[in-house]
Structure of Prolycopene isomerase, chloroplastic:
Amino acid sequence: MAAFPNNTLRSFKPLSPTFNSSTVRNSVLARNSVSQVPSSTGAVSAKEKRSFPGKPEADVVVIGSGIGGLCCAGLLARYQQDVLVLESHDLPGGAAHSFDIKGFKFDSGPSLFSGFQSKGPQANPLSQVLDALGETIPCASYDSWMVYLPEGEFLSRIGPTEFYKDLEKYASANAVREWKKLLDAILPLSAAAMALPPLSIRGDLGVLSTAAARYAPSLLTSFVQMGPQGALGATKLLRPFSEIIDSLELKDPFIHNWVDLLAFLLAGVKSNGILSAEMIYMFAEWYKPGCCLEYPLHGSGAIVDALVRGLKKFGGRISLGSHVEKIVVENGRATGVKLRSGQFIRAKKAVVSNASMWDTLNLLPKEVVPKSYLDRTKTTPQCESFMHLHLGFDAEDVRKDLGIHHIVVNDWDRGVDADQNVVLISVPSVLSPDLAPPGKHVLHAYLPGTEPFDLWKGFDRKSSAYKELKAERSEVMWRAVERAVGPGFSREKCEVKLVGSPLTHQRFLRRNRGTYGPAIQGIPQLYCCGDSTFPGIGVPAVAASGAIVANSLVSVSQHTELLDAIGI
C-alpha cells in the first residue's frame, strides 16, 4: 500500500509487435542455488550463484515477481511469448510472498480480499488473470471484521443493511442519512465502473477495438440506466473519490473518517488519493446483497503459487535469486538486463519492470532519462514505510470467538495516514488452520505505509540503538494485538516473535525507502507495471497494470482471442 499522487497512465511508447509460435515450450523454474528447499507455499527457495541458468534471452524479460509482474508474465506466456521473470529474492511474490518459521506460515503483505470466485466481465482483475491461466484459488468466506475506534469497538459486517445498525449506535442519525445518500449515489455507478473489464485495456490505439468498440453497448446501457445525473457522476470514475464525497456535500465526520478508512484498507491512501472507479467497485463488492469477503486457503502465498503455476503451464520461466543490477539501453531502446553476477540477459521484444518508479530509475543509465523527469521524480511525494509484527502463539489462552481481521484506529483527528495511529491485524489461521501447527495461531500486524523512514535512516541493523527503536516503535502494534486477541494473550509465551522495520522492508522487498507507490517515461521497449503505474495501489490494481502491459505487447487479434476464450 502506498500513496498514489499520480493517477495518469504514463506513455511508454509501446511498439505494436506481433508474435506467433507454433511450438509449446517446456516450463522452467530456474534456481540459482546449489540446493533447493521447498517453501511453505510450494515455491522454491534459492541462493544466488555467479551465472544465470538456462537460455540467457527471452522475448520479454520481467524484473520482479510481485503480483503485477506475475500477472504480466503469465498472460504473456498465455499469449505464447517467451517470457522470463527475474526475481532477486529467494521466494516469488514480492510484497505478497509468504514464509515459514517453525511451522508457522506467515503472510508478508495483503490479507483482505474479495472477488476471487467472480467470473465474467465484472470480475476482479486478478480473478480474470487467473481465469485466463486456468487457475483457481480455494477460499474461505466470511462477512465481517472487528473495528476498534475512538467511538467504541464493534463487529462490522459487510452487506447493504448491517452497517446502518453500527451507525445508529456509534455515530448519529445524520451519519445514517449521509451513508444512505452515498450508497444511493455510487452503487448505480458501479455498472459503469464494471462495464469495461480491466483485461480488455491495452496501452496503444488497439484499445479502441479491444475495449471501446467491444464494450460500447454495455457501457451505453449502463449510462442509460443511470440517467442524466448518474451519467454525469460516471465522468468522475477516473478522479479521486473525495470529489464524489464533496459533490454530495457530505459533512458528517464519522462518514468522512469511515470512507478514508475503507480507502486506506483498499489501497493505503485516503479518499483523496484513490480512483473513484476502484472505490465504487469495492462498494459494489462489499455493500450488495449476498456479498462476502474471501481469504485464500493456505494463505496469500496461494495466490503467488497459482500465478507461478499458470506461468509455467504456458512455458514461462522464473529465476529466483537473480538480482538485476541494471537495465541495458542500446541506441535508445531497452534491450535487456545485466545481473549482479555480470550475466547479460537479452530481451528481444521488451523489458518490463515490476520494481517501483524510484527503483526502476536506479536501474537505468542516467544519461537515457530526461533531466526534467529525474527532477520531477525527486519531488514526487512518497508514502512512508511499514512496521510489521509476526507472531506465532498457542490458541488455548485467547478468545474463542477470534475473527480473522481487526482494525485499530487510535485517533480520528490525526487521520488514518498518521504514524502510529492505525494498526491492521490479520489472524488467518482462524480460517485456514493449516497455516499454524495444531492448536496454534499465526498473526500478522502492521502499520500500513505510515512509519517514517527517516526515523530509521542510517541505523546499523545490528546495533543496540536499532533494537531499542524497534521495541519502541512496535509497542503500538503489541498493544493493538493484546486488545484484539484478548486478556489471555501473553507476549512472553509467543513461540515466534518477529518485528520488521522500514529497513527490513527495504532490504527484503528491494523497495526504495521501504515504500510503495507512484512511472518511467519515454524509453522504447521499456514498460512498467505494479503500484507505480495506472491504475494504482492494491491487489486488483496491480493485477490490472500487469495485464495492461501484457496486452500491449501482443497484437489486437491475439488480445481479442484471449477475451473470447475466457468469455469476457
